[in-house]
Write a structure and sequence with these properties.
The chain is mainly α. The chain has 4 helices and no strands.
Length: about 120
């Protein structure tokens, strides 16, 4: 399945990078929705809010007393960032502003990114 997705996605990206980024943005939105439902199940008590695994605490830099709900919140936030990033890239391609260097300020006395 993943090999098939990779092949189809690679072809899509070669044909239309803007569409490929938009598709990934929509897939990430579905992930955000799924994690939101997962949190709802934890809050409703249908899924036990167990202690977070050590690997998740380390990876997400969570408090050592974190729970499953905290992990899911961190993962959902990460997916939301991926969603927004891919939609942003799609928008930039549409606006013909693909190069991120266009937003760089060359004056060394200023921040590198123009705000």
């Amino acid at each position: 399945m993943s090999t098939g997705f990779f092949a189809v996605f690679s072809l899509l990206y070669m044909v239309s990078p803007r569409t490929a980024h938009r598709v990934v943005g929509y897939l990430e939105e579905e992930a955000v929705t799924s994690y939101t439902h997962f949190i709802g199940e934890i809050d409703a008590g249908r899924i036990e809010n167990v202690k977070a695994p050590e690997i998740a605490v380390a990876y997400w830099n969570l408090d050592p007393e974190s729970t499953l709900r905290d992990v899911v919140l961190a993962v959902r936030a990460d997916e939301a960032l991926h969603r927004d990033t891919n939609h942003h890239f799609s928008d930039r391609i549409r606006a013909k502003r693909e190069s991120l260097f266009e937003d760089m300020d060359t004056d060394s006395n200023k921040p590198h990114i123009k705000y």
